[in-house]
Amino acid sequence: MPVPFAFERITPAAVAADARQYMARMRDGIRLATDVYLPERRSHSADPTNPADPADPANPADPEASYPAVLVRLPYDKNSRYVYFDRIARLFTDRGYAVVVQDVRGKFRSEGLTLPFLREREDGYDAIDWVVHQSWSDGRVGMFGDSYYGFTQWAAVAAQHPALRAIVPRVTAADFAAIWRPEGQPQPVWLEGIEYFAHHWVDNDTYEYEPDRSLRPVIEQYEQAFAAVGARSLWFDLLAPRQAGLPTQSGLHPFDARPVPVLHCVGWFDNILDAHMRDYLELASRPGWDAVQYLWAGAVDHENYRLANAPVREEDDHNISEEALARMLPGYVGPALDFFDVFLKGVRPVTSLSKVTWELGHAEWRTSQTWPPAGTTVRTLWLSEPARAAESLPGGLLGDAPAEREQEAQWVHDPEAPVPSLLDNSFAHLQTHPDLAPLAGREDTLTFSGPVLTEPLDLAGPLGLDLHVTSTAPRFDVFAKLLDLAPDGRATQIARGQLALDSARISGAVHLDLGHTGYRLRPGHRLALLLAGSDHPLFLPASGTGENPWTALTAKPSTQTLRTGGACPSRLTVTVAPPAAL
Question: Before 2, cis peptide (omega within 30)?
Answer without folding.
Answer: no
